[in-house]
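Appendix B, example 12.
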Amino acid sequence: MNNKPLLIFAALTFAFFSCKKPPTVTNKVITTTEAKPETHDIKIEEIDFQYFSSKSKVNFQFQNEDQTAIVNVRMKKDSLIWLSVNKVGIEGFRALITPDSIYVLEQLSKTYYVKDFKSLSKQFNFTISYSLLQSILLGNLPFETLDRKALKVKDYYLLRQENGSITVENFIGIENKKVAKVEMVEQPSRNSLMLNYANFAPLNNYLFPFNSAFYLKYDTNQKSLSTLITVECKKAELHTDELKFPFNIPKRYERK
């Protein structure tokens, strides 16, 4: 199987933010035996926006590949995520993500990819949606819930969620009420996505995680693969004025 679309997708969709040294990603899951039995009604501080933009230095590790690029991102709430990936001052990729599909242009090879979320989820054997990506990229809860009852675990509140075949454990900071860690596991494949957020700093009226790491582990064609993304943020802004999302597939480009 050609893994290139997977590599591009992973590099683009999780390449968003981080400043200074990336946090350590660990596979450790805190169990209920470490948690106090009482539950707490918690308020989670989440970012709301109309338009978002950022410029970041991204490090992407997949098997024996280790690449770094500058990624520019623009986002319109619930509608569009636009990315431009540059290496040595040259744009190599451009992507547009809608609630239905992901479009990727590869300028150097003059090719493009189109993926819908259903086929992408099947390829990763892990359920992926636009709303999930948007929440992950902002450091919000991956799945909305009205039930905010959580267990206290060391320095965090632990909020558990079930979404279809996915079990989610959200670790919320006790002091700042921000999502600090998320561990998602899909059953029965045991494919997992682990997120770490740190170095929170003001962004307008919100706290924004200026340090992030994303670890995706999945099986495909009876082969176990993993991807680690860390990103160093250079600039992040919330906008009220409309942003542009330039994306055009030239006729001479070949679809892959």
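The first strand starts at residue 39 and ends at 41. Confidence is low (pLDDT under 50) at residues 1-33.
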